[in-house]
Amino acid sequence: MKKSTDQVVFLAISYIVTSLIAIFTLFPFVVLIVNSFASEHSIIFYGYSLFPKEFSVDAYDLIFRSPDTILRSYGVTMLITTLGTATSLFFSSMAAYVMYRKDLKYRNGLAFFIYFTTLFNGGLASYYITLSSTYHLKNTLWVLLFVPMFSAMNILILRNFIRGSIPDSLCESAKIDGAGDFSIFIRIIIPLSKPALASIGLFTALGYWNDWWTPMMFVERQRLFPLQYVLYTIISSVNVSSSVVQNASSVTMPQESLKLAMTVVSTGPILLAYPFVQKYFVKGITLGSVKG
Amino acid sequence: MKRFRLLTLIVTLALVMSLILTGCGQPASKDEPAKTAAVEKTAAPEKTADEAAAEEPAIDTSKEVKLYGYLLGAAPAGFNDVMAELNAKLKADVNATMEISYIGWSDMQAKYPLILAAGEDVDWIFTAPWSFYAQQAGKGAFMELTEEIFEKYLPRQYEQLKGTSAFTEAQVDGKVYMVPTNSPDKKVPAFVYREDLRVKYGVPEINKFSDIEPYLKAIKENEKGMVPMNLESNYDLGTPFGALVVESIDQTKDPLFTTGGGSGLVYKPFDGDGKLYYTTGDSELAPYYVTAAKTMKTWYDANYINKDAFANKVRSKDSFVQGKSGVGFGNSTDLQSIIAQAEGLGYDVGVVPTVGGASGKYMADPYINNGWAISASSKNWERTLMAMDLICQEESYEHLVYYGVEGVNYVIKDGKIDLPDGITAENNTYPPDAAGFWFTNKNLHLPLATWSDSYIKLYDRIPSLLGEDKLAAFNANTDSIKTEAANCNQVLIQYNNPICLGAVKDVEAAYKQLDEKLKAAGVETIRVELQKQIDEYLASKK
Amino acid sequence: MKSLKKPGFFHELAKNKVLYLMFLPVAVYYILFAYVPMLGIVVAFKDFNYRDGILFSPWNGVDNFRYFFVSGKALQVTTNTIMYNVVFLAIYTIFSIMVAIMISELASKIFKKVSQSFMFLPYFISWVVVSAFMYNFFNYDYGLVNNFLRALGNEPINIYSEPSYWYILLPVLYLWKWVGFGSVLYLSAISGIDQECYEAATIDGANMFQKIFKITLPLLKPTVVILLLLGVGRILRGEFDMFYNLIGNNGLLIDNTDIIDTLVFRSLLGTQDFGMASAAGFYQSVLCFLIIMIVNTIVRKVDSESALF
Predict the structure, then answer these.
(1) What CATH number does the domain containing B478 carry?
(2) Cα–Cα dist A227/A180, whole Å
(3) Which among A171, B424, B425, B495 is least buried, having the fewest CB atoms inside 10 angstroms?
């Protein structure tokens, strides 16, 4: 099919703008990878450079000094990320579906019930004491699963997605056909909301993957440390050993390149998973395909 | 059918979730020991009184207990091995095992008070004024430790502390809540510079900080790529300014000091009259501050100081080692590894302590600068005290927690602590000092084999450089002035730091502005209240 | 008839029991993890101590709020917080939509996926690392930017002593970090649009731009509105991590870049008072609450389906 002028113009603009933004976002990451392999001396003396002046793997050496710990923490992270995301997505979309149903009298009340929690909170002290002393969640896998599990924003966004992409008539006709509330959710809502579920699922997974706050507050047993927190402790112990240690160490700890290497180590795996999510963002879902 | 199954699944999941959450998942194991322990605890003070009256029978350790402790920092890699050995020893001696967790440096502000507020599974915890000892004690975080308790459960520690000012220092509203170290660190602030470059460019000798200007100039003019003073945003920022002030007025101390902030009031620790001075406005000290600030400004304007100090996260001592900074700031303890590294690179390093101009001294660390406390919620405080007494004072314990496992992390060679064959400072899994036991008896320590000559020279000089802070034991109570304290702190961070760096356009105008802002923030209220507290404290000491 | 029009609470529950049951897991979660700890809000009005705990510590009225309001900076930081958030929200929304529409129209699948992946990268770079980047790129002595300026014969710039640069830098950095993230949401919304609409438009002879303005944007409206509403509900909550890591305690920039969260952090550095920290949080909550109630009511009046609740 031959493209019309307006299409050509639009595509040209799109390619140019998208490329520019992509370069703008990629460039720092390239610099980051390059300099994670730079020596401490070259970073402090010359700053970041586009080509490494003095090549060094000190930072990675330090991170993988105890490979067991790192591998184990990858395991913990993957476990809570997959388990947490699946659970969260299922219950979130279910709640979103409930609030989407127009025949539900209190649907706005429910939305407010969820939303209100983003406005007010009891502060850190209360949260900490409740979780650790009342629920005894400290030093458990549960705490890593539960704390980042639901986000009011995500649930409300899901509700709006369902609202925007699934006409009420579809639900009504299904009801007339004798489908129950739950089977409508499973058979119609879920298949039709795949793009929304993919994006919210992605956000949830990233939330789990990057969560270092929960383990910092609630986990003190090393075998339960997720990846981000292990990296975080490596950084902080390097900072400490450089400032309080009486021991005369004759090499400098690679503090500056460590920051960068940490990002590389923690970003790598989840980046590889991204293309699997992307296939859901392809334009072209038609309601007809489900109706039939 | 399918629908039914799924529904059941969801309901069960929800139920399981709520069960686990409300704590029903782990009933007896969690609650029961807590109850019995609580009974024991309430009965305990009477018991000690009774026992003291009677023939002092041996303390009952028949029931094995687990003790929970908290340190600051992060566990070194070899921590588990050390703990395994420690627990074997503790099991044999006091029938207890210990589990130690760490509060990371960057989480201290948030997590330290929370652990105490929640009061869960914590028997002892590191404490010091710089980790908010007095504030936490005032909120009821710690158990009071009477002299009888010290005598009975901490005999070795008590022996060492008896007759020192440690107990007065540890008092909060007349009560002691912590066990201070018996061997406070001996350290003075100092700076390092490149002696080889100084000689090379024919710069006059540097004996005190104000001598440094020609050296800075020489570096700026001759050494491309070097910054004479490459300051960092947190620790370093006010350090050179402070060194200049101290040289002209002698030591001063802010009773509400925080890094970068404080109250804007100072006293002279060696004077003993406890008078609080303003540092701005028409105070008699103000001219000294203005002069120092003007010096900083000339240096800043001449590019002797890095322009982006506010954003630099690399300490000057670390960039000194990398040949970036001409000067490195630190203290006699942490500069030691810097000196070793720099000498390894072939630099000739000069070390100069920054001490008071008139007295030639720096305030000695108080006893309470490192210590530990029993949490108010501790279930096994007696056993904790007994175990900690061993850890702090028994040589075998002390060396274990401080240097690690003998033969693995250290060996003793010619009366010095050395590394075993094949172990280097980099791959040692338990470097000395790193595990956070900073309150043990350091008099049991041996010199390290790695200390360089110039460090030993400085180390030997330190005792003569230390003077007594007459108000070291004074703990300010900020309850009634917390609004003013918070606001003055933020005013200082905003308006004083640029002055200290020399980055303001007009020093006098900047001071005038700082003065106005401090007065508006209520510095006078703080002065009146703290002066009252200090006077009462000094009167009580007489 | 009346009872049919206004069925009671229990009648409604019974009628839709399956639906309410389906909501239960999330409801239980929010009760346990949000509403129970929310009782701690009283700490803002208490002189908190550990012996008495959160609920039984003595009240101290509005003492905990005083420092914030007598600092003379309350108004300034509140305005700053709102202004920055408004700018952030505006550019974030505009650019996310723009990028999403462009990417969705691109023909090359590979290019689509690759560029989208690249835009996501900044999400993984923490503000700590971003601040190290800024320091290195804009360093006065060796920074890339200043080397470039010097090579052109210009004066080097020092971004850490001149607030005006940050009015540009902060929004740009915010955009850089979040545009990939934001465009994903709009991209999935676009994926949800029925293709038949476009086909019909093509038959009617609409061109690309008409299709975007007449079909895509109107159909994105509900998503835009909900995301804007969610943003407005956080308008008083500053991006602490960003401001703290990039600006820190730089007194030369503070007046122009101080937000509520950084002011509170700086003030309470030496006090460690839960009550005072909660007080500032409470102030933000109340303002957010008032603003979102007003905005949401207006939105509901105009289009009840787009409102948050």
Answers:
(1) 3.40.190.10
(2) 43
(3) B424
Q: How far apart are CA A264 and CA B377, in angstroms?
A: 43
Task: State how far the Cα of B347 lies from the Cα of A250, in Å rounded to an integer.
Answer: 13
Residue of B nearest to C27 (CA): B14
| 8 Å CB contact between B278 and B523 | yes
Q: Which domain holds residue B114?
A: 59-184+367-446
Work out how many CB contacts closer than 8 A connect A with C. Answer: 299
Interface of A with C in 120-159 (CB under 8 A): 120-127, 129-131, 134-135, 146-147, 149-150, 152-153, 155-157
ipTM: 0.91
The model's pLDDT over B381-440, given as tens digits with 9 standing for 90+, comes to 999 999 999 999 999 999 999 999 999 999 998 888 888 988 887 778 888 877 889 999
Quick: pLDDT tens for A44-90. Answer: 999 998 888 899 998 898 888 878 889 999 999 999 999 999 999 99
Whether C85 and C39 map to the same domain: the answer is: no
Q: Could you state, in order of their start, the residue ranges of all structural domains in chain A?
A: 40-242+251-291
Across the interface, whether the CB atoms of A104 and C278 are under 8 A apart is answered no
**Overall domain count for chain B:** 2
The span from the first CA to the last CA of chain A, in angstroms, equals 29
- A112 token code pair: 């407010």
CA-nearest residue to A184 within chain C is C19
Question: Are both B333 and B376 inside the same structural domain?
Answer: no
Residues B23, A135: C-beta atoms closer than 8 Å: yes
- What's the rounded Cα separation, in Å, for the pair C65 and C70? 9
Q: Angle B490-B494-B498 (CA atoms, 0-180°, nearest 5)?
A: 145
Select from C192, C233, B209, B241 the least CA-distant residue to A112. C233
**What is the overall mean pLDDT for chain B?**
86
Same domain, C97 and C227: yes
> Residue B194 phi/psi, 5° resolution?
-90, 100
pLDDT at A240 over 50: yes
